[in-house]
Amino acid sequence: MSNKSMPKASLFALALPLAFAVTTGTALADCKSGFVWREARPNDFVCVTPAQRSEAKAQNANGPNNVQPGGGPYGPTTCRQGYVWREAWDGDTVCVTPTERQKAKNENAGNTSHTN
């Protein structure tokens, strides 16, 4: 290895573990006792009660039943009358009731008080 490449290699050797630690550290924040990750999608680390996680999984499973057959003005994921996108994160188009969408927003807002 030449003297010119030594500083680059050293910098890379220091930066890679640091980048990994920052990425995994933020993604794997643990929940307080009595709370679990919602897991409404991969990498959904919002801390909720086990019952709320079960609700999110049920919504995911039932969501296709609440989509307007043939799509609509918002494309193929347009919800049937009386249903809205859950919007637990940007791009969440699972169709749920307005009450369920509000619950997801409340879960997101309360996340910081449920993490260690």
Describe this structure in words.
The chain is mostly helical. It has 2 domains: 1-30; 31-114, no CATH class. It contains 3 helices and 4 strands. Strands 1-2 form a two-stranded antiparallel sheet. A two-stranded antiparallel sheet has the order 3-4. The longest helix has 23 residues, at 5-27. The protein is globular, with a radius of gyration of 20 Å. Residues 9-27 have low confidence and may be disordered.
How many helices in DSSP terms? 3
Total strands: the figure is: 4
N to C succession of SSEs = HEEHEEH
Beta-sheet strand percentage? 5-15%
Helix fraction, binned, reads: 40-55%
Note the overall shape: globular
Through-space gap between termini: 45 Å
Please indicate the count of domains. 2
* Major sheet: arrangement of strands: 1-2
* Low-confidence residue ranges: 9-27
The description of the largest β-sheet is: 2 strands, antiparallel
**Backbone structural class:** mainly alpha
| Average of the residue pLDDT scores | 84
Give the C-alpha Rg.
Answer: 20 Å
TL;DR of this structure?
Helix content is 42%, strand content 7%. The chain contains three helices and four strands, in the order αββαββα.
